[in-house]
Amino acid sequence: METIESGKVVELAYTLKSDSGEVLDQADQKDPFAYIHGADQIVPGLESALDGCKVGDKKKVKVSPKDGYGEVREDLKVSVKRTQFPENVKLKPGMQFESQDADGNGIIFTVEAIEGDQVKIDGNHPMAGQTLHFEVEVLNIREATEEEMNHGHVHGPGGHHH
Ligand code: ZN
């Protein structure tokens, strides 16, 4: 029987809850979530917990911020000048846009507040600092195709369509 290991495409049904029990995200059997194991597509704490699992396995996995979306970093909360944004964009709190950090890694920033000609932005993941409570069920495991490995994502159900 197939087990989950690097290079396998895994289909999951899951529910993700916060510490307070709020449902943050989910996927069910009809619309499963698919990812390539070992390709950093899911949080490290969940990926390592799924290592070696088989189809039909159900698991509750508690993931600390360190193994999830990271601790909240104060240095990612910054103020920038309004003029750094295109003039035709009407800025509102909650808006997200992509930028790069000093190392050229893509970061999603969220607009927190607009104060005069200053815009407060936050580059932390919305789930940073949170303990994540996953309930997962393994629905399917298969070999990733060469094309999927090259693209770095899953094709077909639960993945990309193109
Ligand atoms: Zn593709």
Task: Outline the secondary-structure elements.
Elements: E1 8-17, E2 23-27, E3 33-36, H1 44-50, E4 58-63, E5 77-81, E6 96-100, E7 106-115, E8 118-122, E9 132-143, H2 146-151
Antiparallel strand pairs: 1-2, 1-3, 1-9, 4-9, 5-8, 6-7, 7-8
Bound molecules: zinc ion (ZN).
Note down, in words, how this protein is organized.
The structure is a single chain. The strands form 2 sheets. Strands 1, 2, 3, 4 and 9 form a 5-stranded antiparallel β-sheet that branches. This protein has a 4-stranded antiparallel β-sheet with strand order 5-8-7-6, with no helix packed on it. It folds into 2 domains: 8-69 and 127-151, Chitinase A, domain 3 (Roll); 74-122, Thrombin, subunit H (Beta Barrel), CATH 2.40.10.330. The mean pLDDT is 93. It has 162 residues and is mainly β. The chain starts with 7 loop residues before the first strand and ends in an 11-residue tail after the last helix. Helices cover 8% and strands 38% of the residues. The chain has helices at residues 44-50, 146-151, and strands at 8-17, 23-27, 33-36, 58-63, 77-81, 96-100, 106-115, 118-122, 132-143. Strand 7 (106-115) and strand 8 form a beta hairpin. The chain contains 2 helices and 9 strands.
Concise synopsis of the structure shown:
This protein is mainly beta and 162 residues long.
List keywords for this structure.
single chain; 162 residues; mainly beta; Thrombin, subunit H; 4-stranded antiparallel beta sheet; binds zinc ion
